[in-house]
Amino acid sequence: MLAMTRAIWGIPDDIRDEKRIHDLIRERCSDPNMDFIGLIRTGVGMLIYWFDENLHLVAVGLELFCQVRRNPVIAEVRDEVHPYIRNASAVFIREGIRQGVFRKRDPTYAAQMLLSLVTGVAMAHVTTRKGEFNSDRLEKEMCDLIIGYL
Question: Can you give the CATH number for the domain in which 28 is found?
């Protein structure tokens, strides 16, 4: 997750501290020239590409997270990863709201909804026959959903 966050935001690889990364995201979002919509499109594009190229890892990840309620070790991993992603997303959403790009809504709940969307897309990617849906079209549809929601 840190690697994908750093790639999307252009954060140096040597920064691994979650709070520092969130501070950098907030700092970059405060730029009045920030292209929030462009960043959503870039992030979704990277996500769909990663799903396409790592379908086996997506499947394993989903399998593991289905065991969260039964396996305390997996729950512990989820408890580290999920809040990190949700908080980074909430920082982005909060700044977009502050700049008037996104509608006023609770950034934490909005981030949770977007994470649910990503999880659903990941599950559909794993359970759908290869080639049944065009990834470029899925990327466009997902961007439209996110942008329309925010």
Answer: 1.10.357.10
Which residue type sits at 87? N
Owning domain of residue 8: 2-149
**Structure confidence by residue, pLDDT tens digits, 13-47:** 665 666 776 677 777 777 777 788 888 888 888 88
DSSP calls for 50-88: HHHHTHHHHHHHHHHHTTTTT-HHHHHHHHHHHHHHHHH
Token pair of 71, please? Answer: 């396996």
Count of domains observed in the chain: 1
Cα 68 to the center of its chain, rounded Å? 20
Q: Which of 90, 82, 150 is nearest to 119 (CA)?
A: 82
